[in-house]
Amino acid sequence: MPDGYETVVGLEVHCELSTRTKLFCGCENSFGAAPNSQVCPVCLGLPGSLPVLNRRAVELAIRIGQALGCEIRPSVFHRKNYFYPDMPKDYQISQYDLPVNVNGHLDLPDGSVVGIERAHIEEDTGKSTHIGATGRIKGASHSLVDYNRAGVPLVEIVSAPDIRSAAQARSYVSELRRVLVAAGASDGRMEEGSLRVDANVSVRPDGSTTFGTRCEVKNLNSFRSLVRSIEYESKRQVALLEAGEAILQETRHFDESSGETHSLRSKEEAYDYRYFPEPDLVPLEPDEALLRAAAVGAGLMPGERRRLLWEAIGASLEEHASGALADQIETVIDLELDRLVVDAVAAGADGRLALARAANEAAANPESARSLGAGSFAALLQLESSGSLSATQSKAVLTVLTEEGGDPSEIAARLGFEGLGDAEIEELIDGVVAAHPEEWSRYLEGDGKVAGFLLGRIMRESKGRANGKVVSTKLAERRSRA
Amino acid sequence: MSERGAPGGATSVRGIAAAVRSREATASSVVEETLERISAMDGELHCFHTVMAKEALASARALDATIAAGRDPGPLAGVPVALKDNICTKGTTTSCSSKILENWVPPYDATVVERLRDAGAVVVGKTNLDEFAMGSSTENSAFGPTRNPWDASRVPGGSSGGSAAAVAAGLVPLAYGSDTGGSIRQPASFCGIVGLKPTYGGVSRYGLVAFASSLDQIGPFACTVEDATLGLLAVAGHDPRDSTSIDREVEPLLDSLGGGVGGLRVGLIEEFAADVAPSCSGAARAAADALAAAGAKVGEVSIPEVRHGLPAYYVIAPAEASSNLARYDGVRYGLRVDAGDARTMNLRTRGAGFGAEVRRRIMIGTYALSAGYYDAYYGQAQRVRTLVVRAFERAYEDFDVLLAPMTPSEAFELGAKTANPLDMYVSDLCAVPSNLAGHPAMSVPFALGESGLPVGVQVLAPALREAAMLRAAAALEAAAPPGVRGPVKLAAAPAGAASDGGGE
Ligand SMILES: [Zn+2]
């Protein structure tokens, strides 16, 4: 961000709800089916068809509101009227001045808080593919429309303009994503369009208390695009202000290849959506039963999961701030391995070791790691802590344990890691001492450099079955006795 | 078949069903006769867009097989019915009298169609209407007008003119229309038959091509109150596919018909008298007198708000229509006029596909919902709507049912009002308050006007009080002078001049 200016960002996140069926009909809601195979008169908007609200979608929408601390209130569906070929009815059923969720907030990991103005229910549109050189509508020879996505339930989550940087925007979207996944409302897959982000970006001189003119940037389909577009847009707007020019309120498209934003339409060209109450639906009045049903099945929210992890590893406040452990904590939460860590610690594992192994090794295969039993994970970590297994051995056992399951000690034995007994280790040391008398003398005289050589020889002779820590201890004992 | 034989006249719904159920007649013979009658007489009347001869005969044979096998064929066994061509029929064109849907074949049946088939009725065809049900004369049809069986130089009313004329001409004993602002009741009055608009939510709208969703209701046409009641019962009741459908048991309405009006509190609405022809206001007053004579407690009631219904209606209905008709964009179905880009294709398709009245209402509705105008038009109209509802509530504190004229005039000549849309809109004056309130209302033939054409009287009731409404309607029917109702006696090939009288 150029000196002397502040970026102000508000985000609109469209989240596809992971319901079994669409918002207003019984068609399956799933990604990747053959084009136009999941359609019916209702989601195709055929004459005479009528929408029937999916109760499950309402529950998930309310659950999102609950997770974001929103006020949940009676709401009304409106029609948002505009022509577009991939919108079957040429209006979208959405919520307008009476959304179901209002006035919430999202706490970010760095302690900042972003206000949530509203989180409302609406239906998704179909998807157009423009056939031609550019892949965009301009210059296309024709367009194909797939209506499988038409009528998929969405919740649009609108933040307050509380975000002050591209990095904070990124943090907001990733934390929101975690909340949506934890709530069981979304699969959180940005690459499949399950989460789509528009950014309202403005800039203002440092210290200013009024907002600058904002531009809405569309087509932000990845974290990278989100960050790049906000950075680009801030610089563009500051450059305009520095040149004494005005910023026009408009909608802009982010071009991933160039990293630039381009004007789509100005304020004057903005659609007049002619909102009016949807006469085919009745008002939605959430009662106690609905609020309770919505809450059932929500998982732990990321803030709470973070707290449990910190507690499990027993970190100090300084460590909270340092960020070293924080990265591992975010990783295990994102991979949903936090439960495994917390449970392993409860079963006797060392907290930091459990966190490290989960964030690094288990993370390589999170799918399988999630089904790993906390008990066997803890048992493995205890073998490592007690010195029965070296770190390298422990990691190798973990790989097998994750892929195949089983008992850690048995896997260690199968891999030939069964720790050599004391007598066997002493025997190996005797052999190496006999073979390298010169080095041994230097070691006894206190030459530290030769210790590594001896350890290496012994480990090689043991074919990796000796625990390095145990060998080092025994070598040190012999020297002190000598 | 014993009840058959009135020249050109179908027998009653009740009579046909009884004959078919008791095997006095076969469904096939009833349907064959009906198809013959339609082919002989519909040439000039133009009630039908599509006659479903093949499908109807197949259904009739299936019904006869059901009966032969000793299974229950349903309460309307073998009754031929006609459907306004804005009610979706799987596999049969549903045009809404519009070029834009001229060749559109729905892949599904409307709920009412499913229910009629379940009841044993046989759908014989799809009837003419004003394009997308916008009109009061059936002249706004892309495929030509329907003529009034009483006088072929006159309109049958609209927008459900094809269904009304088909029943009045005796082509079918039962037909269905949709009523958004009088589109069942006004043509019923013009054609001398019974037309009933149920409580909003009483009959499923699933499969009814929407005009104005908050006002549209499907309802029956028949020659008698009893047949209209049978027609209502066959299709009424909760439908989970329509969110505005009322989840409540349907009352056994047939019991109300013979109940008489003793003690029934009947209010004659004063307001319309000044706005309608003497024959129409006179019919309403005569109806009030007749009910009083039959034992009802009759009084007059002033509901000034009803006169604001028409302007409110002509904002709300076009507003909803402008949105409902947006989907005819040339992309997925119906007419497409190709162009270089989607937007131009869309504009050309709509320009070519919609008639003048539809385009007019889309423009009015779009304007009424536009930023900066919403509150002054749509918002204001909704406030008036609320006032109308409250005014009715007050009136129904003192009365069980209300009476009013049905139409401002008798059936007018073809072309008489096509030059001035506002003249045409006034036809709906007495009808729209019930649509705005979502209340049931019906037209019962009760008099002949100066031109010898039938004049209906409107019976209104509060939501879900069809039973009271039908008690009054049955009493009016019993008290009506002879010759006021269909079916009309038609020669096999009616001349330009009409038949001169009713069927009784
Ligand atoms: Zn569907």
Keywords:
heterodimer, A: 482 residues, alpha+beta, Arc Repressor Mutant, subunit A, 3 domains, nine-stranded mixed beta sheet, three-stranded antiparallel beta sheet, 17 helices, 40% helix, 20% strand, elongated, B: 504 residues, alpha/beta, Amidase signature (AS) enzymes, eleven-stranded mixed beta sheet, 11 strands, 38% helix, disordered N terminus, disordered C terminus, binds zinc ion
Explain how this protein is built.
The complex is a heterodimer of chains A (482) and B (504). In chain A, 40% of the residues lie in helices and 20% in strands. Chain A has 17 helices and 14 strands. The mean pLDDT of chain A is 91. The radius of gyration of chain B is 21 Å and the shape is globular. Chain B has a domain at 9-263 and 441-479: Amidase signature (AS) enzymes. By secondary structure, chain B is an alpha/beta fold. Chain B is 38% helix and 12% strand. Mean pLDDT of chain B is 94; it is low at 1-10 and 493-504. Chain B has an 11-stranded mixed beta sheet, with helices on both faces. Chain B has 16 helices and 11 strands. In chain B, helix 2 (27-45) runs antiparallel to helix 3 (53-68) and helix 10 (309-324) crosses helix 13 (375-398). At the A-B interface, loops of A face helix 10 and helix 11 of B. The complex binds zinc ion.
**H and E string of chain B:** HHEHEHEHEHEEHHEHEHHHHEHHEEH
Rounded to an integer, what's the Rg of chain A over CA atoms?
30 Å
**Strand arrangement, major sheet of chain B:** 1-3-2-4-6-5-10-11-9-7-8
Helix count of chain B, per DSSP? 16
Number of domains as seen in the coordinates of chain A: 3
What would the principal axes of the Cα set say about the shape of chain A?
elongated
Average of the residue pLDDT scores of chain B: 94
By DSSP, the count of extended strands of chain A is 14
Structural class of chain A: alpha+beta
Q: Main sheet of chain A, how many strands, which sense, barrel?
A: 9 strands, mixed
Give the termini separation of chain B. 20 Å
Distance between the termini of chain A: 66 Å
Please give the CATH architecture of the domain at 9-263 and 441-479 in chain B: Alpha-Beta Complex
CATH superfamily of the domain at 9-263 and 441-479 in chain B: Amidase signature (AS) domain
Largest interface, counted by CB within 8 Å of the partner chain's CB: A-B, 30 and 44 residues
CATH topology of the domain at 9-263 and 441-479 in chain B, what is it called? Answer: Amidase signature (AS) enzymes
The count of DSSP E runs of length 2 or more, i.e. the number of strands of chain B, is 11
**DSSP helix count of chain A?**
17
Instruction: Show unreliable segments of chain A.
Output: none
Bound molecules: zinc ion
Roughly what percent helix of chain B? 25-40%
